[in-house]
Design goal:
Wolframin_OB_fold; extended; five-stranded mixed β-barrel; about 775 residues; three-stranded antiparallel beta sheet; Wolframin_Cys-rich; OB fold (Dihydrolipoamide Acetyltransferase, E2P); 36 helices
Length: about 775
């Protein structure tokens, strides 16, 4: 045994890995036959030799290490991390690291850190290709390189991403040195670590003891509420429904474009991985080029996954977006260029399956292509035979299955995809199929844009792009001038100041939330390994601050009772004066409690309209601040009173202006008020008796409530809310129209139902249809 250890130390062992495995087994077996005190040392020696063998790819050594970990044999503080690394790391990476280690020893026989000049000289002494030499030269960027640094950089290039790395002895020794140093040595020898420790200790103390007051100092809820109301005051729901689909489309299309460029870059890096694997295989015959290429391909699938997700959003948002703001002709040309680039650059090889799938998909897309062809008698019918549908069956409402040549071609495409995936024992999935799908869907995207393009637009896009490259500097100057003019026309100094203030207010809770999401870390020091309950409560409050404003803005739609409303005659017989005379009001309220939330459709005479409640969360928060800051925020987000009240034409406005100026009130936030109205309606019981009811209306009915006057006859739909059967029952308004108002009052329903209950669902329906037709046409088509 001593001879074997000596051979390993001198490098004369014929099979180094097998020898290390034999020595490790010897010490483990010897430890089983001695006392506990001696066995622990023998176990540690055996584990140490097994770690060396496992790092060089020995599966038997890895299995023995697993048994040692399960039986708690030979475990120590200085080897537990190495054991876990050996158990968690694949055999390929171990072999690759060993090959990289042997390569470093070949370049540097002394096995010490070497300068960049010595490293370059060692590369020059080896026989290798020009591409392999460049790969090794890129591995070193500093002035010198050590063995572990070289191995980690080689592995990073081999995998295309960072992998778990073994800790270097330099890092460990530096931490140990800092812990054992005197206070004076810590300041003079380790100034950076000392400052970091002081900062960590200070923030750790504040974070563990003062998280409650940190949250209380930052009024997150009120700030978000203020910003939400500010946004609501600037834009309407229609604007949001117009902007969001366009924004979603442009973002998703840019994501698809960037992901495609990442794929092209990754394909180029794959060639470097293969060259590096071939180089390492010279120093360890266990490195296989196909295995390295396979691992790199599977680990670099993120751009492909992101591409397919962005594709769904792009198709969906294109159907919802206002296409007058989408240059479809230009996007058609871009999609075609990316189709060609993907076809030639992404797949490993071009076989008949790829070409056939593109050909069959072109045939399946013929119905969309011929849509733009003008109608020519005779010619159109001939084209329709090959590109149209021979027979159609409606299997569901608006869902049809078409039979024809394009449908048959479409059915053959998935069969070809399966054949691609099964090639080379399943390696065709990442080598052929997935890259080909990118090309396939870019072609389908180009056809989607083509449907909304014109021939003039396509010519403009083709010629315009060439002109744009030639005259790009002139176009940039013209664009900047135009953009500056537009910005000056849209943004006044007040609006810019308002935006800057909003950003500053939003940055406070956002920065604190971001810090909390990082676990309250300062540099590499952690303030706590787990989230506290208070942090979770704070996140819930932030979420509530974003959701709660919707309860003030939106009124839910009325329930559809299919015309079966509670009539006034039925209501008064149970819950009004006739019932009161027979029993009493309490008895009536008990019986009528069963009518809660039932829908009514009544007509009556308006007695009065009042404002029951004024809600302004922003003003309530600002009023709690010091007067100077409150006045500044009111003038930033609100409106100013005129400095000269005499210019106002309305007597009421002039009087209000003078009163506020007399009180030194310059600005107000009344545009952020949300009103709750109460309309008193007189209902007829009989010729001698009347019954007053109270109908509550949300802020959305402001225009109607401001126009309706006492004595007007109104027809309304509402839900019985409370005090049912009492003298003045309360109802919740969903629809109102005035039958004899002097001012025009258009029938007004709940704004949520009117604006979103129809438009949003129609847009979502069209988006779902577009996604379905994108993937299933021409076989199954939603009309």
């Amino acid at each position: 045994m001593e001879k074997m250890i000596e051979d390993l130390q001198t490098g004369s062992s014929k099979d180094e890995v097998e020898t290390q495995l034999t020595i490790g087994r010897h010490f483990l077996k010897k430890g089983d036959s001695v006392s506990d005190e001696e066995s622990s040392k023998l176990y540690e020696k055996g584990v140490q030799w097994l770690i060396k063998a496992s790092k060089q790819g020995s599966r038997d050594a890895t299995q023995l290490l697993l048994e040692c970990l399960e039986n708690q044999k030979g475990l120590a503080d200085d080897n537990i991390e190495d054991i876990r690394w050996c158990l968690e790391t694949p055999d390929f990476e171990k072999n690759a690291r060993e090959a990289a280690k042997r390569l470093f020893h070949t370049l540097n026989p002394s096995r010490m850190r070497m300068t960049k000049e010595d490293f370059m000289q060692g590369i020059a002494n080896l026989t290798m290709s020009k591409s392999e030499r460049k790969l090794l030269e890129k591995a070193v960027k500093g002035d010198d390189v050590g063995e572990e640094d070289f191995i980690n950089k080689i592995m990073k290039r081999l995998h295309g991403s960072s992998r778990p790395q073994l800790s270097t002895s330099d890092d460990v020794s530096q931490e140990v040195g800092f812990e054992t140093a005197t206070p004076f040595q810590k300041i003079t020898k380790y100034p950076t670590m000392t400052l970091a420790w002081i900062a960590n200790y200070t923030v750790d103390a504040a974070g563990s003891q003062g998280r409650v007051w940190l949250y209380s100092m930052i009024p997150t809820h009120q700030i978000y509420m203020l910003l939400v109301f500010f946004v609501y005051s600037l834009i309407s729901l229609d604007v949001i429904l117009w902007v969001l689909p366009l924004l979603m489309f442009y973002i998703s299309f840019i994501v698809m474009l960037v992901c495609t460029l990442q794929m092209l870059y990754g394909k180029k890096k794959l060639k470097d991985v293969k060259a590096l694997a071939e180089l390492l295989n010279r120093f360890s015959d266990t490195i296989h080029t196909e295995t390295a290429a396979s691992m790199y391909s599977w680990s670099s699938l993120t751009p492909y996954l992101s591409f397919f997700v962005a594709l769904l959003f792009s198709v969906m948002s294109l159907s919802m977006a206002d296409r007058t703001w989408v240059p479809c002709s230009e996007f058609t040309l871009v999609s075609l260029l990316l189709t060609i680039a993907s076809f030639f650059a992404l797949s490993d090889k071009f076989d008949y399956l790829s070409i056939l799938s593109i050909l069959f998909d072109n045939i399946s897309m013929l119905p969309q292509v011929i849509e733009g062809i003008p109608y020519i008698p005779g010619v159109y019918h001939i084209i329709q035979i090959f590109a149209g549908s021979w027979y159609s069956i409606e299997i569901l409402p608006d869902l049809q299955i078409h039979f024809g040549l394009p449908s048959l071609a479409y059915l053959l495409v998935p069969v070809l995809f399966i054949r691609m995936a099964l090639k080379d024992s399943g390696r065709g999935t990442y080598r052929v199929l997935i890259p080909h799908l990118v090309c396939f869907f870019w072609w389908r995207m180009s056809m989607s844009f083509y449907r909304y393009s014109t021939w003039v637009g396509l010519i403009r896009a083709s010629v315009g792009w060439v002109s744009a490259v030639v005259f790009l500097p002139i176009f940039m100057v013209i664009f900047l001038v135009w953009l500056t003019i537009q910005l000056f026309g849209v943004f006044t100094l007040t609006n810019v100041f308002k935006m800057l203030t909003s950003v500053a207010l939003l940055a406070i809770p956002a920065a604190f939330a971001f810090w909390g999401s990082k676990g309250y870390k300062l540099y590499s020091f952690d303030l706590g390994k787990s989230k506290s309950t208070l942090i979770k409560v704070g996140l819930v409050l932030i979420f509530a601050a974003s959701v709660i404003p919707f309860t003030f803005v939106f009124t839910p739609p009325e329930r559809n009772v299919q015309g079966n409303y509670v009539t006034w005659d039925k209501y008064k017989s149970l819950c009004s004066k006739p019932q009161w005379d027979e029993t009493n009001i309490a008895h009536s309220m008990v019986i009528c409690s069963h009518l809660s939330n039932m829908m009514v459709d009544w007509s009556g005479v308006v007695k009065k309209v009042t404002v029951k409640k004024i809600d302004n969360q922003a003003e309530a928060f600002i009023n709690a601040l010091p007067w100077s800051m409150a006045n500044w925020l009111k003038c930033t987000y609100g409106e100013e009173y005129p400095s000269d009240c005499t210019n106002l034409t309305s007597t009421i406005e002039q009087t209000l202006c003078e009163m506020n100026i007399a009180q030194n009130r310059n600005c107000h936030l009344k545009k952020l008020n949300r009103y709750q109205f109460e309309m008193w309606v007189t209902m007829v019981i009989d010729n001698d008796n009347m019954h007053d009811i109270r109908v509550e209306a949300s802020h959305w009915f402001k225009d109607s409530m401001m126009k309706i006057q006492s004595g007007d006859t109104v027809r309304f739909r509402a839900a019985l809310k409370s005090e049912i059967g009492n003298i003045w029952p309360i109802l919740k308004l969903f629809y109102v129209e005035c039958e004899n108002c002097p001012m025009e009052v258009i029938g007004e329903s709940s704004a949520f139902y009117q604006q979103t209950g129809w438009h949003i669902f129609v847009a979502i329906r069209d988006a779902i249809r577009a996604v379905w037709n994108f993937f299933m046409a021409p076989l199954l088509v939603f009309s």
